[in-house]
Amino acid sequence: MSSPLILVNLKTYKEGMGSRAHAIATAAQAIAQESGVSIGIAPSYIDLHPIARHFMIPVYAQHVDGSEPGAHTGQITAHAIKAAGASGSLVNHSERRLTLADIEASVKALQMQKLVSVICSNNEITSAGAAALAPDYVAIEPPELIGSGVSVSKANPEIIRRSVAAVRAVNQKVKVLTGAGIQSGECVKIAVDLGTDGVLLASSVVKAQEPAVVLRDLVSKL
Ligand code: G3P
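Above: inputs. Below: predicted complex with SN-glycerol-3-phosphate.
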């Protein structure tokens, strides 16, 4: 059985840019090595290339467009994020919502480049819809809990349970992550015990004085 994935989204927090992004990646790589747990990070586009080149951990883009390379000013192509060294991308994050057609195009573009796709969803119905597009992961995140400091694992375990069942009913190969307010090893353990393949989180690591301390706690019960 493969290790759960702890995926840390640096968003556009100032605490997750430049040298801080490198510090978080350094901590993530050290704790992934000591624990054997897969820890990935999703830095801003600006930091994607240097982080992907300097570290062995999986590095994800925060969003990708479905466009082909060519005359599309300002678009983020799957080809470009692969060339930058990324392993994959989030798609349809709650803070970067897309139309259904856009989500499909982004997932296809990632698949063409053999990159990992993580479609974010907000409830079990959209989780099932996302699974129909056959991404590698669906990440269920109740929007009201994002950045709240209240963990989905504790506040709404039922939505995790129902989303895992909804995704499995559509496509057994699609893995499930959950996120929103994840902050401790206990949150991660609850999520994994409910059938997920890991967690997607941000503020508890990015805004921590010492991200390594939080990361070590996150993997402590796996
Ligand atoms: O992408 C992860 C995110 O939306 C959850 O954020 O700060 O609640 O861990 P946070």
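The chain has ten helices and eight strands.
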